[in-house]
Amino acid sequence: MKRPVVLVGGAVALVAVALVAVVVVWRLRSDDPNLLTAAPAIPTSAPAGIDASPTTAPATAPVSLPSGVRRFVVAAGESSAKFVVEETLRGLDSTAVGTTTAISGEIYLTKEGLYAGVPSTIKVDLRTLKTDESRRDDVIRDRTLNTSRYPFAEFVLESVTGFPNDYREGVEIDLTLTGTMKIRDATRPLSFVVKARQAGNTLSAIADADFKMTDFGLTPPEFPGFAKARDPVHLQIVLIAREQA
User: Fold this and answer.
1) Is the pLDDT assigned to residue 31 strictly greater than 50?
2) What is the reported pTM?
């Protein structure tokens, strides 16, 4: 007489185990974007093992600049770019996060903001983007971004709004940065919401932007029967740049 009760109890237990397994898989496969919400504190020196100087002089570096113009060079290894994409993984909602520290560029500033006489650019090496899944990385690099032909994404700064006239060193400020982003052979306008601070010869910032892959002619990555990425992308750039003579 107790057997049906045992069977029912066993079935309930199996269902519970299955539900727990689904939750565990979802938690394991849904990455925490871990996005910053404030500009990094100004480091007093480069971290151990990292060269604070740029590895190569930017090709656009002029022989001389007008008085009052400061040239900040992006510190590769200390800076980073991160993309966050929602995806469907075996029918469950998940989050994919890709990062790289291979960033280069230079920013020209005056007391009033961005200097227009020389292009300010930020370049990301897309060949070095990594998520937690190597198969996903291969699809992104080879099919989506075609990094063998288009290795870099490049953002050209065109204007900065919100720059105060009486800036005090070390204080975080809110800015809006607009310009053009080039991914593969598509160039589109893009705006970043920025939190930045500057002290001495160092500039730090976080810059966040949202766009769609299809805006740049990209097809969201898909693994038939397993996973499919959604179109929207959140991009966060963490920037450390140092003034160079």
Assistant:
1) yes
2) 0.81
